[in-house]
């Protein structure tokens, strides 16, 4: 008697899933987002059943048996088609997964400018003055106008260089990273470079020529006899009503100088406690050696050169009150 056999059906392996790992790769200096594709069965292998092989088809790639994870780097939409075959020869239906690879777009470095109280310099001619003048110094700001197609926040590093030497840097979240010229910036000609870098390491740089000038400077010295000159704060023993001599001359250790690019000081205005006093020498508004009867403690000199640029210097004088006058009065009987 023949033994009856029951036909056992082999279960078709369940569909695979794709796990995608995102990494960064460099290819011809273009930074791409790369998908690493893993194909894994949903159920463990069992003796005599399970997945025999997994085949896949990638766009423009010949169909082949899956043996190890593979990378997709082609920008745009990539379609991965895959199916499996079990040990019994059952083939599941083809499945597919769309994977979009986005190309990182590099930033574009750009230098702009903002200038206040910098005439005759400014952004038109890229001339700045060291911010030393009172009361209106030149405020010259180098603007980081860089852009990134992937979004402004994708720029994570900005570095300013002056003649190849690093001047300032900002790293995320330091946007926009402008640079304002400082008193410590030395006058001269500079090649300013701005380097920017995005989150994927793509970078760009640009340069701009810049001239920094010394600004006009007001300076003076004081004397009680018009012969012996000293700094005004160090002047001692002068009393209210006494004649104070003032001088602005290159022969002294402190004197006025015109700005770079100008040729001379064209105007000097002398004030005592905010009131302009008549120059003692009678040389109009450009007197270099006036005198004044001391009636207050604050002396100011404002100078203007032919650029024109202006500055002032102010000193506080230590004034002593005059001694009271005594008069002898005979006794009365």
**What quaternary form is this?**
single chain
Assign the CATH class of the largest domain. Answer: Mainly Beta
What is the count of DSSP helices, taking H or I runs of 4+ residues? 0
Known CATH architecture of the largest domain: Sandwich
How many distinct domains?
3
Helical coverage, percent range:
under 10%
Q: What Rg is obtained from the alpha carbons, in whole angstroms?
A: 41 Å
What does the average pLDDT come to?
Answer: 81
Parts with pLDDT < 50 across at least 5 consecutive residues: 1-32
Major sheet strand order? 9-15-14-11-12
The number of E-state strands comes to 24
Q: Provide the CATH superfamily of the largest domain.
A: Immunoglobulins
Structural class: mainly beta
Task: Name the overall outline.
Answer: rod-shaped
Can you describe this structure?
The chain is mostly beta strands and 333 residues long. The protein has three domains: 17-101, Immunoglobulin-like (Sandwich); 111-213, Immunoglobulins (Immunoglobulin-like, Sandwich), CATH 2.60.40.10; 221-320, Immunoglobulins (Immunoglobulin-like). Helices cover 0% and strands 44% of the residues. It contains no helices and 24 strands. It has strands at 17-27, 30-40, 51-58, 64-65, 70-72, 76-86, 95-101, 111-116, 127-129, 139-144, 155-162, 165-171, 179-180, 188-198, 203-213, 221-223, 238-239, 243-247, 265-272, 275-276, 291-293, 298-305, 310-316, 319-320. The protein has a five-stranded mixed β-sheet with strand order 9-15-14-11-12, with no helix packed on it. The protein has a four-stranded antiparallel β-sheet with strand order 4-3-6-7, with no helix packed on it. A hairpin with an 8-residue loop joins strand 6 and strand 7. Mean pLDDT is 81; it is low at 1-32.
């Amino acid at each position: 008697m023949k033994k009856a056999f029951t036909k056992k059906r082999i279960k078709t392996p369940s569909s695979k899933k794709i796990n995608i790992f995102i990494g960064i790769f460099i290819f011809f200096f273009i930074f791409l987002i790369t998908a690493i594709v893993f194909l894994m069965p949903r159920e463990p292998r069992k003796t005599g059943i399970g997945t025999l092989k997994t085949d896949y088809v990638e766009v423009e790639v010949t169909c082949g048996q899956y043996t190890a994870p593979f990378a997709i780097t082609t920008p745009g939409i990539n379609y991965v088609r895959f199916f499996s075959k079990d040990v019994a020869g059952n083939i599941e239906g083809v499945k597919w997964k769309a994977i979009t690879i986005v190309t990182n777009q590099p930033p574009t470095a750009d230098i702009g400018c903002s200038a206040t109280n910098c005439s005759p310099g400014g952004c038109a001619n890229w001339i700045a003055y060291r911010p030393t003048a009172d009361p209106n110094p030149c405020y010259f700001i180098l603007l980081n106008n860089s852009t990134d197609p992937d979004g402004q926040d994708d720029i994570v590093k900005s570095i300013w260089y002056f003649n190849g030497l690093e001047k300032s840097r900002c790293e995320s979240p330091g946007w926009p990273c402008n640079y304002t010229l400082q008193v410590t910036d030395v006058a001269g000609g500079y090649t300013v470079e701005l380097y920017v870098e995005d989150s994927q390491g793509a970078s760009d740089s640009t340069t701009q020529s810049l001239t920094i000038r010394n600004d006009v400077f007001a300076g003076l010295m004081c004397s009680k006899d018009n012969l012996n000159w000293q700094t005004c704060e160090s002047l001692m023993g002068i009393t209210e009503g006494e004649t104070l001599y003032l001088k602005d001359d290159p022969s002294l250790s402190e004197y006025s100088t015109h700005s770079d690019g100008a040729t001379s000081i064209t105007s000097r205005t002398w004030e005592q406690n905010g009131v302009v006093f008549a120059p003692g020498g009678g040389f109009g508004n450009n007197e270099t050696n006036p005198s004044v009867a001391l009636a207050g403690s604050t002396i100011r000199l404002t100078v203007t050169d032919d650029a024109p640029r202006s500055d002032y210097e102010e000193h506080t004088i230590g004034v002593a009150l005059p001694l009271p006058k005594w008069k002898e009065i005979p006794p009365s009987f």
